[in-house]
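In this supplementary section we document a worked example of the pipeline. Step one takes a protein sequence of length 432 as its only input; no multiple sequence alignment statistics are reported here. Step two produces a three-dimensional model, which step three serialises into structure tokens for compact storage. The input and output of this example are shown verbatim.
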Amino acid sequence: MTEPLAGIKVVDFTEYIAGPYCTMLLADMGADVVKVERPEGDAWRHTAPVAPYESRGFLGVNRGKRSIALDLERSDGRGIAQRLALEADVVTIAYRPGVAQRLGLDYEKLSKTKPELIYCENSAFGHNGPYAGRPGFDILSQAATGMVLYENKLERGVPTFITTLAVADLTTGMFMAFAIVSALYERTSTREGKRIETSLFASGLAAQYRPLLSVDEVDGPVREGFLAELANRRQRGLRHEEAAKLRNEYVSPRGRNNYYRVYETRDGLIAVACLNNRQRRGMRDVLGVEDTTVEGISYDWFSEEVRQAHRANDEALENRFRERSTAEWIEALDAADVPCGPVNFPEELFEHPHVEANRLMSTLDHPVLGPVRMPASPMLMDGTRPDSGKPPPYLGQHGPEVLREIGYKDGEIDRLLEDRVLVTRERLVPGA
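The serialised model returned by step three reads:
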């Protein structure tokens, strides 16, 4: 087992996805993560639960942690939380503006006592600007950053958000983990802590490396012309379909890309991913179609020439792919060095030979639910996959042991349990 963060203690005051995903990554790397929950638990525990206080959403982003459930509206609860934070190397927090100050968990207070503390605060939109302080979840970041519009997917006349994964949440969690580890590395030489701030909005922007890249000499006048006319038309009322058509008059949308898409085969589906003309020519020749736009090295899928070529070949390519099985097409395309692969149902991956060969699923013994399988860490370090071996905790599972570690005696812990300052699942679920 590889544990590059062994000896690092993290106290996690975050909920839902972004912050918990960050601290799960740190736990995978050996950090001791103590998750501080409300008396009723992280709100994510109650969304589509599979058992009382347990849900797939919660399980998926909380493995490897210890849980303590505290009533932070009580002075004793706030005192425990503050002591935990001051014992930590890293604190992660994601409260609405003013809440951390009210709880005595703000960076200014904690860093005065512990200047070497690394404090990572995530919010929806950051602390400045007109969106500051607004609540936010993944869909709101996708909306505010324009991500939903770039996808060009409509349902009942309006754009649909990306549902397969929580793009803003997960990228935020990764950015948080990267920043925390960077700050820990810097601290080894400076012995000083760091205040880190992230937001779902900033991550939503950062993830769009291509849509939000502007060559201003070329793109600036086009953008300004579109925005001026959009503002003018909005004054008179404007439906989204009309706005989308207006944008297409200024900004050429991508045409359908026959060389980067999914096709139906005789027995399933195949994905092709040709990102240069050599690969495109290979696919063209294997499929036996005509397409002169893939000669040379340049390729512009925004151009009318390419659009027409794709429209002309759509039906022929689709019909050709249906003639043979997925395995047969993969063999033929592999021989021509054309990137391609099968499309798998998620259910097929649990026993998939490639997943098993690379140990990409982890089986953990959950004390309430029994065996739980979930994706393992995607990284290998010297051939070893980081793995705490610990399942996601049930609510308050480690409360008493965490308090003992910071100096509480058994009698004090019993009193806190009786007063419901400290909460455990056993007290909430009869017979648990």
